[in-house]
Amino acid sequence: MRRLILTLLLLATPLAHADRVKIAVAANFTAAMKELSALFHESTGYTAVVSYGSTGKLYAQILNGAPFQVFLAADRERPSMLHAAGLGDSPYTYAIGRLALWSPDPSLVDDRGEVLQRNDFARLAIANPKTAPYGAGAIQVLRKLGVETQTRSKMVRGDNIAQTYQFVMTGNVPLGFVAVSQVATNAQGSVWVPPQSLYPPIRQDAILLERGRDTPAAVSFVRFLQTDAARAVIRRHGYATG
Predict the structure, then answer these.
(1) Is 241 among the domain residues?
(2) Same structural domain for residues 179 and 160?
(3) Are 88 and 110 in a shared domain?
């Protein structure tokens, strides 16, 4: 009898989580994802269990066996590599992000970004360019403007774009490169959005991972993310959807 009960419990355990999907999400997409998670649950009855972080670190976790079923990256490269390795289906672009140079000080950042040329600030926050695509984009902007060398000693690197935003928002760093989506609804401070000619568009791809292929909630979320309702939320948070 004891063995029978144990067998029934083991069989029941996966079913207890069949209505959930575990999603790894790039930190820049936090605000949009919170709204999307609520809409997804309202629309389907499924629950999104979300972990946020830098794209590079989440990618490494997936390679090391983290039980994610869907990955929303901040670039195209990592989802493509997961697909090439047989660890997920064909990825697709769910959002196109943009950089913003932002400061809570309304007089610090001008509308042409000349504050970078003047170099009259103490520190500059960017996301780690090795793991965060928004950080890599920031380096490209600085390089194109010819100010990478003079600002290098002032850089404060966040693990991801969410931490970078926190550095600036709390006043610990006077200005920094954040995602447009993080300041799209923030009327405080001053902001410059670098022209797209200074860095490549930040195309963010989603991928249904191998662990999610047979999970209805995971498959449903990937489909949901491509609906008109989901795309409207994404655009409202400062992204393009292609």
Answers:
(1) no
(2) yes
(3) no
Beta strands at 155-158 and 124-127: parallel, antiparallel or unpaired: parallel
Whole-number pLDDT of residue 188: 85
Q: What is the pLDDT of residues 99-124, one digit of tens each?
A: 999 999 999 999 999 999 999 999 99
Same domain for 189 and 136: yes
Residues 193 and 105 reside in one and the same domain: yes
**Residues 106 and 135 grouped into a single domain:** yes
Give the number of other Cβ atoms within 10 Å of residue 194's Cβ: 22
pLDDT at 186: 67
Is 165 in contact with 176 (CB distance < 8 Å)?
A: yes
Q: Are residues 91 and 128 in the same domain?
A: no
In DSSP notation, 172-233 reads: SSSEEEEEHHHHTT--SSEEE---GGGS--EEEEEEEBGGGTT-HHHHHHHHHTTSHHHHHH
Per-residue model confidence (pLDDT) at position 187: 62
Q: Is 111 helix (H, G, I), strand (E, B) or coil?
A: coil
Q: What is the pLDDT of residues 58-94, one digit of tens each?
A: 999 999 999 999 999 999 999 999 999 999 999 999 9
Q: How far apart are the first and last CA of the chain?
A: 58
Q: pTM of the full predicted structure?
A: 0.82
Which residue, among 47, 106, 78, 60, has the nearest Cα to 207 in the 3D structure? 78
- What is the CATH classification number for the domain harbouring 171? 3.40.190.10
Partners of 175 in beta bridges:
124
For the chain, list residues with pLDDT below 50.
Answer: 2-16
Domain that holds residue 58: 2-96+203-236
